[in-house]
Amino acid sequence: MSAISKVNTEPPAGTGQVGSTAAGTGQAGSNAAGTGGVGVPVLEVRGLTVTFRTEDGPLSAVDRVDFEVADQEVLAVVGESGCGKSVTAMSLAGLLPRTASVDGSVRLDGRELVGADKKTLRSIRGREIAYIFQEPMTSLNPVFTVGNQIGEVLRIHNGLSRSTARKRSVELLKLVGIPSAERRIDDYPHQLSGGMRQRVMIAMAVACDPKVLIADEPTTALDVTIQAGILDVLRGLRERLGTSIVLITHDLGVVADLADRVAVMYAGRVVETANVNELFAQPKHPYTAGLLAASPSAGRHAGTHRLNEIPGLVPVLAEQPNACTFADRCSRARDTCTTEQPLLTAEGTPNHHVACWNPVREPVEV
Amino acid sequence: MYALELEDLVMHFGPVRAVDGVSLRIRKGSVVALVGESGSGKSTVGRSIVRLLEPTGGTVRLADADITHLSRRRLRPHRRDVSIVFQDPAGSLDPRLSVGDIVGEPLRLMRQRDTTGPVAEALRRVGLRPEVAQRSPHELSGGQRQRVSIARALISSPALLVADEPTSALDVSVQASVLNLLADLQRDLGFACLFITHDLSAVEYLADEVAVMYLGQLVEQGPRERIFGVPAHPYTQALLSAAPVPNPVAQRARQPVLLGDDLPSPIDPPPGCRFHTRCPVAVEKCRTVVPEARVIGEGGHQVACHLVSDDGTGPDVRERPGRWGGESIQTQSNETGVAR
């Protein structure tokens, strides 16, 4: 408690308590806040489209993606390799290379980021929208100490003096659960374990108290006992600092652990969005249902149970067709599926959206 | 009776004590999962079994033949008894060879001339069409490549398959088809399998028995139902509690045991029980006395922990209130009396 109370931009005491109880009641409270459209979302993405120019012609990576993230909400963007989830994440603050053309709209607190000039983006990155990536070692500079690197963020963005920045860095390291922070601050990245490095990355990312933290596969390179600690830190950030989190992952266990709401991506499109409990209990897109049934679950052995397989391969798309891109792998496909693109529409409950001409309506056993 | 017997296997790389006394037996036709986190030495065990590495100490017996220190030439007749499948199918298939050449290579090394028929049969078994033999590995998807690796490994009808993280590089939906395939093949062909992985859900799906490794040593082994149902070692308990399950309601009712991030180095492993530096229930004895593996239950359930009694009762770190791992945020919120 003491570590966090020193962080200067702490949310009002009331907010902190709400956060803590939300963890106790299985996130029910946050879910309601996340999707009920209370006020303006912190991050609003509309029609986001990313196309890469390649030697073999254009490559459509992201196609008209819509989602929004509410205050203090954890939105998981989940999908398999090549579905466009990381490209979506990178495009939010203009991190893609010049070979990518980005269209559509990304509004952070009402401010448009697509097409914004370099100076604007630079002032937003770090201060309002921050990233952590899968591999902390390649994101840290090996020749500077941890304290140096966190301090740099604080000195550049917040104009803190060297000594204040150092003090603040120690607080941040405590916030992310690094023991003996006063000592570890002078360590170089190679002296830290993988989990500690990821904690340092998180400390750097939240140094300027960003509104939105984009975590791109933050635990994928880590062992499960280490992962559990990092997920705990992320949960704490949301509860204590009120940070909204966009969690990019392929791991359904991580989604189940941390997310309030989920957007499922397939071949560059969002095919389903729902509250986390609803998505797992009643998936409506055949791809989501297939994915959930493909993961082994507790107590099931090959002797008595068979994992669901999704036949076929993910398409590599030059251009997005006017059709469902999952149709040729889908057992529920009808004629319409190959001639017309299904758009996200509410199905069942108002907060559950699915892009499918023939969504799963029967109860699913997961 | 046993396809594989490891006795006190030791593998040191200079000062690095990667594997430090592992004893493990695999009955013919059964699947044993070797579970552990990165740096536990599980892959080194696998590589010692297929003699990609020559062990520093101990013995490796394949179907009663001691192969621990055999020369390359003397080892050759035993090569057909054991095969290995690696994690990264792209890196373990020669890009200059056709799929047919890759799959048939083990037979050619065994002086078999015509491999066309067996190759077609091996491809069919793993669910690939015979035409794939003419293709080159880069033309295939990750899942198809892993099928090619499995076809190559099984073409010599080995009594033992070492599968080293065979599904870890694959997407969930592809993972499912490879796990199903391994289960089908194992049932139909009856080979024994050492399934090396960090993925506990895959272990529960595929394995008959489970061996848990920590810092070069086995801490617990036994039948699948026992390891998942009544895990005795605090590390096994922590591992099981930390792996998130893909079910938000169930997952949020669980409380992972946080161990702290600092894994000791295998260059200078802790004295006594190697897990004591991260163990939430360690006592003084754990810091000084090395725990011996003891049988504590049916099916040869063994554990190496001072705190577990001979009938298998002992502490369950999952039931302890509060969390472990230094000044973590949740620990602090627990101090303020907020239950999770």
UniProtKB/TrEMBL annotation, chain A:
Q: Where in the cell is it found?
A: Cell membrane
Q: Where is this region: Disordered?
A: 1-35
Domain of life, source organism: Bacteria
Assigned GO CC terms = plasma membrane
Q: Which residue range or ranges hold the ABC transporter domain?
A: 45-292
Which Pfam family, an example, fits this chain? Answer: oligo_HPY
Looking up SUPFAM superfamilies in the UniProt record yields:
P-loop containing nucleoside triphosphate hydrolases
Q: Which GO terms describe its biological process?
A: peptide transport
- Compositionally biased region (Low complexity): 13-33
Provide the family line.
Belongs to the ABC transporter superfamily.
User: Which PANTHER family does UniProt cross-reference here?
Assistant: DIPEPTIDE TRANSPORT ATP-BINDING PROTEIN DPPD, OLIGOPEPTIDE TRANSPORT ATP-BINDING PROTEIN APPD
Task: Output this protein's name.
Answer: Peptide/nickel transport system ATP-binding protein
Q: Which organism is it from?
A: Kribbella caucasensis
From TrEMBL, chain B:
Determine if Translocase is one of this entry's keywords: no
Keyword Nucleotide-binding part of the UniProt annotation: yes
Q: Which residues form the ABC transporter domain?
A: 4-240
Q: Which GO terms describe its biological process?
A: peptide transport; transmembrane transport
Region of interest (Disordered), ranges = 308-340
Which key words tag this protein in UniProt?
ATP-binding, Nucleotide-binding, Transport
- What protein family does this chain belong to? Belongs to the ABC transporter superfamily.
Name of the protein described by the UniProt record: Peptide/nickel transport system ATP-binding protein
Q: Which organism is it from?
A: Kribbella caucasensis
